[in-house]
Amino acid sequence: MLTMNEKDKNEMLEAILKENEAYQCKLWAVIMAGADTYALIGGLSTLTGGAAAALGALSNAYCYLGVTEKHLNMVIVNSVNVKLESLP
């Protein structure tokens, strides 16, 4: 798990900032699923053979948020490997 800090927040958000825009606000956040969401996903899991249980991968996901006049930018800071690799 990565450690969240101001330096990384600023670097990661600046990397995705559109040209000619500036952040009005930068903050840390946690994406959390509520009980009603878990209940819904639990019901869907019975229909999809458990595939919908992947919500757990997004619950309690830490992120940095940056707000501009036109955009809400989000950088997920998590231990999930999102690297794209080619298949043989």
Strand content range: 15-25%
Distance between the termini: 29 Å
The helicity comes to 25-40%
Structural class: alpha+beta
Q: Which consecutive residue ranges, at least 5 long each, have pLDDT under 50?
A: none
Shape field: globular
Structure characterization notes:
This protein is of the alpha+beta class. Helices cover 27% and strands 23% of the residues. It contains 2 helices and 3 strands, in the order αβαββ. A hairpin with a 4-residue loop joins strand 2 and strand 3. 5% of the residues are buried.
Summarize the structure.
The chain has 88 residues and is of the alpha+beta class. It contains two helices and three strands.
Summary keywords:
alpha+beta, 3 strands, single chain, three-stranded antiparallel β-sheet, 23% strand, 88 residues
Write the layout of secondary structure elements.
Blueprint: H1 6-15, E1 25-31, H2 35-48, E2 61-67, E3 72-77
Antiparallel strand pairs: 1-2, 2-3
